[in-house]
Prior knowledge:
Layout: H1 13-25, H2 32-45, E1 49-53, H3 56-65, E2 74-78, E3 95-99, H4 110-116, E4 121-124, H5 136-145, E5 149-153, E6 161-162, E7 165-166, E8 173-177, E9 191-195, H6 198-207, E10 212-214, E11 217-218, H7 229-239, H8 242-260, E12 266-267, E13 275-276, E14 282-286, H9 289-298, H10 315-321, H11 328-333, E15 337-340, H12 348-363
Parallel strand pairs: 2-3, 2-4, 4-5, 5-8
Antiparallel strand pairs: 1-9, 6-7, 6-13, 8-9, 10-11, 12-14, 14-15
Helix pairs in contact: 1-7, 2-7
Bound molecules: pyridoxal-5'-phosphate.
Amino acid sequence: xxxxxxxxxxxxxxxxxxxxxxxxxxxxxxxxxxxxxxxxxxxxxxxxxxxxxxxxxxxxxxxxxxxxxxxxxxxxxxxxxxxxxxxxxxxxxxxxxxxxxxxxxxxxxxxxxxxxxxxxxxxxxxxxxxxxxxxxxxxxxxxxxxxxxxxxxxxxxxxxxxxxxxxxxxxxxxxxxxxxxxxxxxxxxxxxxxxxxxxxxxxxxxxxxxxxxxxxxxxxxxxxxxxxxxxxxxxxxxxxxxxxxxxxxxxxxxxxxxxxxxxxxxxxxxxxxxxxxxxxxxxxxxxxxxxxxxxxxxxxxxxxxxxxxxxxxxxxxxxxxxxxxxxxxxxxxxxxxxxxxxxxxxxxxxxxxxxxxxxxxxxx
Length: 364
Ligand SMILES: Cc1ncc(COP(=O)(O)O)c(C=O)c1O
């Protein structure tokens, strides 16, 4: 019996052919595939600028860099996220201020964000976690009122919609990751920065490539954060499938929700009426989580925990910024959350196997 993996990688003949063409072309950076990928990503999101970069973390670093953060400036972000949401801040001597989450959506709680705004708040970084969008209207309202920038971390939310608008399009800058587990990937690391702000759009394009406008003319400070042609061609071809994959993910989520609805000890994910979630992972809460995981793993069904240690409790965060205040909702769920396999390429048989093993476990 094969293992049912948490995530399945996608590859087809068209991708293989086009990758080979890039390899044979000898044209590996700053070529036509990057341009085409950026154009189609822009079109897909309905955004003015899309800038391919080498990872989601690189995208965050570059986005924060545009905010002219000064030592002691504060950036409000959730702790229930991947550490890269806030790790670039230390390079600018800026400080993350962690907001708690809404226990239903796992996204940052806007009321808690409001309470944490001070005169030093320069930026808010909402994370559309697991694909579910953050409640952006009240967040943008308070940010505009207080002149605070908003960087949307969309690394887990390719194609997710908030009130019929795609995420990435709602704040000042949006950033995406194409890390191999994401809803669309590039065959390695990759990322994208998007913005409707022309000034950010122009300068970010330059900064990801040594700050240069021509080969040997460097008017701006920059580094090498480029996305190469092999990654770009895969991204461009995967993007074509994304709408269909999102629908498939949503169908699987419905299947899981239906399968679990009679088990009152399991909490299934919420989908707010204003959200069209693209579901990066399917996360439930269950008591005795470790026993549940052990059982499924023994039946060759993989599981994941996103994330077992909240960022505000990470050793490096405590080392740099000292012990952080308690976040009740975040800390409450940490020992209960577990994610089931989710991929548009899961077969009916695999889904039925998961269903029957969960039923077996729950009936024990
Ligand atoms: C919420 C979030 N932010 C940032 C990142 C960083 O992206 P990358 O791994 O492409 O650097 C990830 C993905 O790993 C993520 O899930």
